[in-house]
Amino acid sequence: MTRQSIIDSYQRIKPYIHNTPVLSSSYLNELAGCNMVFKCENFQKMGAFKMRGATNAILNIEKNKRQNGVVTHSSGNFAQAVALAAKTQEIPAYIVMPSNAPNVKKQAVQDYGGQVTICKPTIEERERHCAQIALETGATPLHPSNDLDVILGNSTSSYELLQDYPTLDVILTPVGGGGLLAGTALTVSNFGNDCHCLGAEPANVDDAYRSLASGKIEVNDNINTIADGLRTTLGDVNFPIIQQCVDRIIRVEESEIVHAMKLIWERMKLVVEPSSAVPFAAVLKEPDFFRNKQIGIIISGGNVDLTSLPF
Amino acid sequence: MTRQSIIDSYQRIKPYIHNTPVLSSSYLNELAGCNMVFKCENFQKMGAFKMRGATNAILNIEKNKRQNGVVTHSSGNFAQAVALAAKTQEIPAYIVMPSNAPNVKKQAVQDYGGQVTICKPTIEERERHCAQIALETGATPLHPSNDLDVILGNSTSSYELLQDYPTLDVILTPVGGGGLLAGTALTVSNFGNDCHCLGAEPANVDDAYRSLASGKIEVNDNINTIADGLRTTLGDVNFPIIQQCVDRIIRVEESEIVHAMKLIWERMKLVVEPSSAVPFAAVLKEPDFFRNKQIGIIISGGNVDLTSLPF
């Protein structure tokens, strides 16, 4: 059933998304001692894989209700993804953003036609504003990662990748809220040919690693990581999928993330956000584990402030 | 005859180069009011189109002589291209570099197996060292841009582009030494379907613009441009080709180059060197001229120092 859901999701969103290019680097392969292909979601519309999940979730709303629009709270890529996906479907997008979100992110959401509401930067205030807007407008609330339609939308990136590279041994994604990892895990377990799905996570916000170990959803004490897309925690929809279909989660240090990010910029000529470098950092960290393997890496996105790079 | 030479060059170097991806951005198209496709030579081996010319020139050396290797003087991409192309053909590469070349560039040449000789940073000293090495070793001297085999090698980038996009109205390249522009002009005049070839040049080093105007090779008074790949001047091999086959050369200011470069990084998620942004800057500068046209842009390379970006 999941297998068919992935295929259906792919067919549904296909007209509205890019089938993103897959790139590789012989230099990085030599350095890492394995064969890596990078699925470039930084080239996706609005610059991140989130466009897939947002589009799928919107298209799954019953048509009459869809016209009322969608509402979400996010200060990151999901806000832009919902704004652009809603614009594409010609419905309103209400985006609640915390007052401490960078102006450049608010502007990007507005450029995509999103209607921004600013609130106090607490999770309670964000959720309260979302609920109120949903009540007033009839808009459907969307969660960035803990929603099956979002997860299925995200699954289409690795689905495309496995169509081009059906013999991959491993597919690696970063893990933050868990929506990309869960979607990828569903694809790998349904379409992989002896392929394993792994997550990569900053050690500073290793809630997913600890959740897998303890068997219940753990939270982070702090969000001190450069990988700003990975500061969120798992939810009750994606965690069971991750528990069932993900082999392991590898943790990497901040310096390892910056090192991997710089290599991707320098050698692959790709603008990627720090979160996207976390899986490659994991490959570099465990050379014995990955040696000579065929590895797919999902480059999650490329939305980064060029004026504050870590190198 | 030229037509067949381009095809032969392409067949000759094809096993040793990447057929580079072509990318586009609906945002940038909307901004510029035209349809642009970017031929990404920043994804080429060693990160620049120069790999094409260097490979073709090396493969055109008669086999007995080829074994003695090649020699060139360069502090830029051509040095790395010759080093890597020679390594691929398993012959020695002797690279003369000025003492003021950045260490990172010397290191890159050595990483590709090039044998670096450091000399005083004058053109006379560079040429003297090249001649001496050629005499001592029997190595064949290679010029970065003023050599027909190099030009024909360079022509293969636009040849690939026109195969994928046969209806382009214009192909634009940056112009420095003139090797890429001349090669592209040969392709466009032989394989273009009512297609025009244009050059784009920093106004601060507008020797090519002035040469086309005066009918003789002009030089630059200074090399004050951020587009470090475009500081060189035309030669007697490529200038006649440019005279015959290039419609016009558009000049852009330094601030326009930086603006265009930042847009390519931010919106296309591509790491490109300043020289590569010059053609896009030209498109932005002359919206009326380019409006609604189908435009091919050669992204010349992506070798840039990430620690000293202009934004």
What does this structure look like?
The structure is a homodimer of 311-residue chains. The first copy, chain A, is built from 14 helices and ten strands. The first copy, chain A, is α/β, with parallel strands linked by helices and 311 residues long. In chain A, the strands form two sheets. In chain A, strands 1-2-10-7-8-9 form a six-stranded mixed beta sheet, with helices on both faces. The longest helix of chain A has 17 residues, at 148-164. The N and C termini of chain A lie far apart (46 Å). Chains A and B meet through helix 12 of A and helix 12 of B.
List keywords for this structure.
311 residues; alpha/beta; Rossmann fold; 2 domains; 6-stranded mixed sheet
For the terminal residues of chain A, how far apart are their CA atoms? 46 Å
Number of domains of chain A: 2
Chains forming the largest contact = A-B, 19 and 19 residues
CATH topology of the largest domain in chain A: Rossmann fold
Major pleated sheet of chain A: 6 strands, mixed
For the CA atoms, what is the radius of gyration of chain A?
A: 18 Å
How many beta-strand runs of chain A? 10
Query: Number of helix segments of chain A?
Result: 14
Low-confidence stretches of chain A: none
Counting copies of identical and different chains, the oligomeric state is homodimer
Helix content of chain A: 40-55%
pLDDT average of chain A, as an integer?
Answer: 97
* Computed structural class of chain A: alpha/beta
**How would the global form of chain A be characterised?**
globular
Strand content of chain A: 15-25%
**Spatial sequence of strands, sheet with the most strands of chain A:** 1-2-10-7-8-9
Order of helices and strands of chain A: HEHEHHEHEHEHEHEHEHHEHHHE
* Proper CATH architecture of the largest domain in chain A: 3-Layer(aba) Sandwich
Report the top-level CATH class of the largest domain in chain A: Alpha Beta
